[in-house]
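[audit] Reproducing an earlier prediction to check determinism. Same input, same settings, fresh worker. If the C-alpha cells differ from the archived copy the diff job will pick it up downstream; this log only records the rerun itself.
[audit] input (440 residues):
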Amino acid sequence: MNHELAYFLKINVAIALFYGFYRLFFYKDTFFAWRRTALIGFLLISVIYPFFNMQEWIRSQDPMIAMADIYASMIPESGEAINNATSIFSWKSILISVLFYCYVAVLVFLFTRFLIQLFFIIKLAIKTPTQYLHGTKVHLLPKEEGPFSFMHWIFIHPSAHQQEDIREILTHELTHVRQWHSVDIILSELFCILCWFNPFAWLIKREVRCNLEFMADNHVLEQGYDCRMYQYHLLGLAHQKSANALSNSFNMLPLKNRIQMMNKRRTQRIKRIKYLIFVPVIGLLLVTSNIEAVARTARKIAIRSIESLPVAAKPIESVVPLETPTTEEEAEVNEVVFEVVEHMPEYPGGQNALLKFFTQNIKYPVEAQEAGTQGRVIVQFIVDSDGKVKEPVIVRSVSPELDAEALRVVSKMPEWIPGKQRGKPVRVKYTVPVMFRLAS
C-alpha cells in the first residue's frame, strides 16, 4: 500500500469515526455554534492528523510496541508480493484499475457539477438587478423561486412575499452572509466530491447544512419574531424550489427537523463540556495512525535484516565424497562443524516464515534510534544436528545496542531443520546479516 492510498484511507476512517461520535453525543443539543465548530473541525482534523508524528513516543511504550508488532504480523509478506509479481496483469490488478478509473470518473463528474453550480450563482449575481430592501442590498430573481444566499449575495423575488415575511427572510439570510456559512458548505461539498464513496462524508455534509439553518432560524427568533408565524411562513414556502443546490436556501428541507429544533428546549450550558470527548477520540486516531507507521517501519527493518540470507557458498559437487564411515567416524563427524553440506539447514516454513519471525521479534533499540545508529550486524551461529541454534556470535559489529538486539533475536529462534551430509544430520555453521536502518 503506497503512502497516498494509506493517507486517503485514514481520512475516510476518521470521517466515519467522527460522525459516529457526533450522532451518539451531540446530534440533539442546541449548541449550534459549537456544533458548527465541531463539524468543520472533523473535516479539517481528518486531513491533518495523519501528518502528526508520535512514533518516538510509541516506541518508548511497551504496550504500544506490542500493538505495533501485532499489526506488523498482519502486513502481507514480501514473499507473497514476489510470488505474485509475475501475475501483475491478473484479474485482481484489472479490478483495481477498473475501480480506480470509476472513482476518478465519478469525482470528475461531481467536481464539474460543483463548478457549474458555482458558475450559475456568479452569473446570476452579475446579471440580476439589485435593490435595497429594509436597508439590505439584494439581487432580484427574475421569476418566483425560493430565496437564498451565497457568500455576500442575497437573492429574492420580492413580489412573491409580504413585507413582514421579507423582514424574516432578510434576517435569516443575513445570518448566513455575516457568519460566512457558504465557506462551510463549500468545504463539506469538496469533501463529498473527494470521498464520494464514503456515506459518512455525505452524512456530515447534511449535518453541516442543517446546522447552518438551525443557526439562522435561531437568530431570527432571537430578534423577536413570532415563532409560530415564522414556522407557518416556512411551510408556505415549502413548494418553492431553490435556484441552486450550492446556496443557503431559506426554505431548505427537511422543514420538520427545523421546526422541531425551534420548539426544542434549550440544552443546559453545563452540557457543553461533553464536547471535550473529542479530545481522546483525536488522540486515538493519532495513536492508531502512528502505530501503523511504526509497524511498517519494523516490517521494513525485518525485511532488510534478511535481504541477504545465505545460501551454500560452494556447489554441492565441491564436497569431497567420503567412504562409508564407521561408528567411531560417525561420532567424530557429529562433533565436526561444517560450513557447506549437501543439504543446508532450513528454517521451518522457509524464508517467508523466517521473515515473519524477524518481523515479530526485532525491536530497534531506542538508544540506537536516538543516536541515529544504523548498519549491518552479521551474526554467526551453529545449527546443531538436532536443529537447535547454538553459540551465536557477532562476526561484524555496528554498536553494542544493535549487536545485543541481533543476538537476542537469533537466540530466540526455534529449532531449524538440521543440515545433512550423506543423509546424516550434522552441525552446520550459518551466518545471517541483520540490517538496521532508520526510516528516512
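[audit] rerun output stored. Observation attached for the diff report: The chain has 16 helices and ten strands.
[audit] end
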